[in-house]
Protein backbone atom coordinates (compact mmCIF):
# COMPACT_ATOMS: atom_id res chain seq x y z
CA UNK A 1 0.00 0.00 0.00
CA UNK A 2 2.89 2.38 0.67
CA UNK A 3 3.77 2.24 -3.06
CA UNK A 4 0.22 3.20 -3.95
CA UNK A 5 0.32 6.23 -1.64
CA UNK A 6 3.74 7.24 -2.97
CA UNK A 7 2.17 7.30 -6.43
CA UNK A 8 -0.67 9.52 -5.21
CA UNK A 9 1.82 11.91 -3.65
CA UNK A 10 3.82 12.09 -6.89
CA UNK A 11 0.62 12.72 -8.88
CA UNK A 12 -0.38 15.59 -6.63
CA UNK A 13 3.08 17.17 -6.48
CA UNK A 14 4.37 16.57 -10.04
CA UNK A 15 1.69 15.47 -12.49
CA UNK A 16 -1.34 17.53 -11.48
CA UNK A 17 0.43 20.91 -11.60
CA UNK A 18 1.60 20.27 -15.17
CA UNK A 19 -1.99 19.53 -16.28
CA UNK A 20 -3.74 22.13 -14.17
CA UNK A 21 -5.65 23.72 -17.06
CA UNK A 22 -6.86 20.37 -18.35
CA UNK A 23 -8.13 19.32 -14.93
CA UNK A 24 -9.82 22.70 -14.46
CA UNK A 25 -11.62 22.20 -17.78
CA UNK A 26 -12.55 18.63 -16.86
CA UNK A 27 -13.87 19.65 -13.46
CA UNK A 28 -17.00 20.99 -15.17
CA UNK A 29 -17.13 19.02 -18.44
CA UNK A 30 -16.50 15.67 -19.99
CA UNK A 31 -16.62 14.94 -23.68
CA UNK A 32 -14.94 11.54 -24.05
CA UNK A 33 -13.76 10.49 -27.49
CA UNK A 34 -14.81 6.88 -27.09
CA UNK A 35 -16.35 4.27 -24.88
CA UNK A 36 -13.70 1.66 -24.14
CA UNK A 37 -14.95 -1.65 -22.73
CA UNK A 38 -12.20 -3.94 -21.56
CA UNK A 39 -11.14 -6.49 -18.96
CA UNK A 40 -10.28 -5.58 -15.37
CA UNK A 41 -6.87 -7.23 -15.85
CA UNK A 42 -4.13 -5.04 -14.35
CA UNK A 43 -1.93 -5.50 -17.41
CA UNK A 44 -4.41 -3.77 -19.68
CA UNK A 45 -3.99 -0.03 -19.23
CA UNK A 46 -6.20 1.76 -21.77
CA UNK A 47 -4.89 5.29 -21.21
CA UNK A 48 -1.33 4.04 -21.63
CA UNK A 49 -2.05 1.86 -24.67
CA UNK A 50 -3.92 4.65 -26.43
CA UNK A 51 -1.81 7.46 -24.99
CA UNK A 52 -5.06 9.07 -23.92
CA UNK A 53 -5.43 12.01 -21.56
CA UNK A 54 -7.86 12.25 -18.66
CA UNK A 55 -11.29 12.89 -20.13
CA UNK A 56 -10.58 11.04 -23.37
CA UNK A 57 -11.96 7.59 -22.60
CA UNK A 58 -15.14 6.51 -20.86
CA UNK A 59 -14.06 3.18 -19.39
CA UNK A 60 -16.07 0.13 -18.48
CA UNK A 61 -14.11 -2.77 -17.09
CA UNK A 62 -15.09 -6.20 -15.85
CA UNK A 63 -13.74 -9.72 -15.87
CA UNK A 64 -13.59 -10.82 -19.50
CA UNK A 65 -14.80 -7.54 -21.10
CA UNK A 66 -18.28 -8.95 -21.07
CA UNK A 67 -21.49 -7.19 -22.10
CA UNK A 68 -24.51 -9.08 -20.77
CA UNK A 69 -27.15 -9.31 -23.52
CA UNK A 70 -30.58 -7.73 -23.28
CA UNK A 71 -32.66 -9.27 -20.51
CA UNK A 72 -29.74 -10.63 -18.45
CA UNK A 73 -30.34 -10.61 -14.71
CA UNK A 74 -26.73 -9.49 -14.14
CA UNK A 75 -26.56 -6.79 -16.82
CA UNK A 76 -26.96 -3.99 -14.26
CA UNK A 77 -23.78 -2.01 -13.75
CA UNK A 78 -22.22 -2.79 -17.13
CA UNK A 79 -25.29 -2.04 -19.23
CA UNK A 80 -26.20 1.03 -17.16
CA UNK A 81 -22.71 2.44 -17.74
CA UNK A 82 -22.96 1.80 -21.48
CA UNK A 83 -26.39 3.46 -21.55
CA UNK A 84 -25.02 6.51 -19.74
CA UNK A 85 -22.04 6.77 -22.11
CA UNK A 86 -24.31 6.65 -25.13
CA UNK A 87 -27.43 8.50 -23.99
CA UNK A 88 -25.99 11.11 -21.64
CA UNK A 89 -22.54 11.68 -23.12
CA UNK A 90 -23.40 11.06 -26.77
CA UNK A 91 -20.46 8.77 -27.42
CA UNK A 92 -20.56 7.32 -30.92
CA UNK A 93 -17.39 5.20 -31.05
CA UNK A 94 -17.34 2.05 -28.95
CA UNK A 95 -14.23 -0.11 -28.62
CA UNK A 96 -14.63 -3.55 -27.10
CA UNK A 97 -11.14 -4.79 -26.26
CA UNK A 98 -10.14 -8.26 -25.11
CA UNK A 99 -6.58 -9.28 -24.34
CA UNK A 100 -4.21 -12.22 -24.55
CA UNK A 101 -3.92 -14.64 -21.65
CA UNK A 102 -7.23 -13.49 -20.13
CA UNK A 103 -8.05 -15.26 -16.86
CA UNK A 104 -11.79 -15.04 -17.49
CA UNK A 105 -11.36 -16.80 -20.83
CA UNK A 106 -9.31 -19.50 -19.09
CA UNK A 107 -12.24 -19.83 -16.72
CA UNK A 108 -14.71 -20.53 -19.50
CA UNK A 109 -12.35 -22.96 -21.25
CA UNK A 110 -11.52 -24.71 -17.97
CA UNK A 111 -14.52 -24.47 -15.62
CA UNK A 112 -12.63 -26.38 -12.93
CA UNK A 113 -10.36 -23.34 -12.48
CA UNK A 114 -13.32 -21.20 -11.37
CA UNK A 115 -15.39 -23.89 -9.66
CA UNK A 116 -14.64 -22.41 -6.23
CA UNK A 117 -15.74 -18.92 -7.38
CA UNK A 118 -19.48 -19.14 -8.07
CA UNK A 119 -19.83 -15.49 -9.08
CA UNK A 120 -16.99 -15.73 -11.60
CA UNK A 121 -18.28 -19.06 -12.90
CA UNK A 122 -21.73 -17.57 -13.50
CA UNK A 123 -20.39 -14.34 -15.05
CA UNK A 124 -18.13 -16.04 -17.60
CA UNK A 125 -21.12 -18.03 -18.84
CA UNK A 126 -21.78 -14.94 -21.00
CA UNK A 127 -18.80 -16.19 -23.01
CA UNK A 128 -20.17 -19.73 -23.40
CA UNK A 129 -21.41 -19.13 -26.98
CA UNK A 130 -17.87 -18.03 -27.87
CA UNK A 131 -16.43 -21.22 -26.39
CA UNK A 132 -18.85 -23.27 -28.50
CA UNK A 133 -17.67 -21.37 -31.60
CA UNK A 134 -14.04 -22.15 -30.74
CA UNK A 135 -14.89 -25.84 -30.37
CA UNK A 136 -16.77 -25.80 -33.70
CA UNK A 137 -14.27 -23.79 -35.75
CA UNK A 138 -10.95 -24.87 -34.22
CA UNK A 139 -11.42 -28.41 -32.87
CA UNK A 140 -7.80 -29.54 -33.25
CA UNK A 141 -5.69 -26.59 -32.11
CA UNK A 142 -3.26 -26.72 -29.19
CA UNK A 143 -3.97 -25.05 -25.87
CA UNK A 144 -2.12 -21.83 -26.70
CA UNK A 145 -4.03 -21.29 -29.93
CA UNK A 146 -7.29 -22.31 -28.29
CA UNK A 147 -6.83 -19.47 -25.80
CA UNK A 148 -6.00 -17.02 -28.60
CA UNK A 149 -9.09 -18.03 -30.56
CA UNK A 150 -11.20 -17.94 -27.40
CA UNK A 151 -10.21 -14.33 -26.72
CA UNK A 152 -11.14 -13.38 -30.30
CA UNK A 153 -14.43 -15.27 -30.33
CA UNK A 154 -15.34 -13.65 -27.04
CA UNK A 155 -14.83 -10.19 -28.54
CA UNK A 156 -17.07 -11.21 -31.44
CA UNK A 157 -19.70 -12.52 -29.00
CA UNK A 158 -19.63 -9.42 -26.80
CA UNK A 159 -20.03 -7.16 -29.85
CA UNK A 160 -23.10 -9.28 -30.74
CA UNK A 161 -24.32 -8.86 -27.16
CA UNK A 162 -23.91 -5.09 -27.44
CA UNK A 163 -26.18 -5.16 -30.47
CA UNK A 164 -28.96 -6.89 -28.53
CA UNK A 165 -29.55 -3.59 -26.72
CA UNK A 166 -31.99 -1.45 -28.71
CA UNK A 167 -30.25 1.85 -27.90
CA UNK A 168 -27.06 0.44 -29.44
CA UNK A 169 -28.61 -1.41 -32.36
CA UNK A 170 -30.70 1.55 -33.54
CA UNK A 171 -27.62 3.80 -33.61
CA UNK A 172 -25.45 1.25 -35.45
CA UNK A 173 -28.20 0.58 -38.00
CA UNK A 174 -28.66 4.30 -38.47
CA UNK A 175 -24.90 4.76 -39.06
CA UNK A 176 -24.73 6.93 -35.94
CA UNK A 177 -22.39 4.62 -34.06
CA UNK A 178 -19.35 2.48 -34.84
CA UNK A 179 -18.32 -0.54 -32.80
CA UNK A 180 -14.75 -1.81 -32.97
CA UNK A 181 -13.64 -5.23 -31.71
CA UNK A 182 -10.01 -5.36 -30.61
CA UNK A 183 -7.59 -7.81 -29.03
CA UNK A 184 -4.60 -6.35 -27.18
CA UNK A 185 -1.50 -8.53 -27.06
CA UNK A 186 0.18 -7.96 -23.70
CA UNK A 187 3.54 -9.39 -24.81
CA UNK A 188 3.94 -7.40 -28.04
CA UNK A 189 1.81 -4.33 -27.39
CA UNK A 190 0.12 -4.91 -30.75
CA UNK A 191 -3.62 -4.71 -31.29
CA UNK A 192 -5.60 -6.84 -33.70
CA UNK A 193 -8.89 -5.48 -34.95
CA UNK A 194 -12.03 -7.32 -36.05
CA UNK A 195 -12.70 -6.90 -39.75
CA UNK A 196 -15.95 -5.76 -41.34
CA UNK A 197 -17.19 -9.36 -41.58
CA UNK A 198 -17.07 -9.56 -37.80
CA UNK A 199 -15.26 -12.91 -38.03
CA UNK A 200 -11.55 -12.30 -38.63
CA UNK A 201 -8.89 -10.29 -36.83
CA UNK A 202 -5.84 -8.61 -38.28
CA UNK A 203 -3.22 -6.31 -36.90
CA UNK A 204 -4.23 -2.66 -36.88
CA UNK A 205 -1.92 -0.61 -39.07
CA UNK A 206 -2.02 3.11 -39.31
CA UNK A 207 -0.47 3.44 -42.74
CA UNK A 208 -2.44 4.35 -45.83
CA UNK A 209 -3.71 0.78 -46.27
CA UNK A 210 -5.80 0.93 -43.09
CA UNK A 211 -9.41 -0.14 -43.41
CA UNK A 212 -11.95 2.62 -44.08
CA UNK A 213 -13.07 2.37 -40.46
CA UNK A 214 -9.51 2.80 -39.20
CA UNK A 215 -8.95 5.76 -41.51
CA UNK A 216 -12.19 7.38 -40.38
CA UNK A 217 -11.26 6.85 -36.75
CA UNK A 218 -7.80 8.31 -37.32
CA UNK A 219 -9.30 11.37 -38.97
CA UNK A 220 -11.55 11.84 -35.96
CA UNK A 221 -8.63 11.37 -33.59
CA UNK A 222 -6.69 14.04 -35.50
CA UNK A 223 -9.67 16.37 -35.25
CA UNK A 224 -9.88 15.70 -31.55
CA UNK A 225 -6.18 16.37 -31.14
CA UNK A 226 -6.65 19.78 -32.73
CA UNK A 227 -9.44 20.41 -30.23
CA UNK A 228 -7.26 19.44 -27.29
CA UNK A 229 -4.39 21.57 -28.55
CA UNK A 230 -6.69 24.60 -28.70
CA UNK A 231 -7.86 24.41 -25.10
ZN1 LIG B 1 -8.94 -10.56 -18.87
UniProtKB/TrEMBL annotation:
Q: Which InterPro entries match?
A: Beta_CA_cladeB, Carbonic_anhydrase, Carbonic_anhydrase_CS, Carbonic_anhydrase_sf
Q: Name one Pfam family in it.
A: Pro_CA
User: Which cofactor(s) does the record list?
Assistant: Zn(2+)
Family annotation (SUPFAM superfamilies): beta-carbonic anhydrase, cab
Residue spans crossing the bilayer: none
The reply to whether Kinase figures as a keyword in the UniProt entry is: no
The Gene Ontology biological process terms listed for this entry are:
carbon utilization
Q: What EC number(s) does the entry state?
A: 4.2.1.1
Record family assignment: Belongs to the beta-class carbonic anhydrase family.
The function of this protein is: Reversible hydration of carbon dioxide.
Query: What is the name listed in the Swiss-Prot or TrEMBL entry for this protein?
Result: Carbonic anhydrase
Q: Which organism is it from?
A: Paludibaculum fermentans
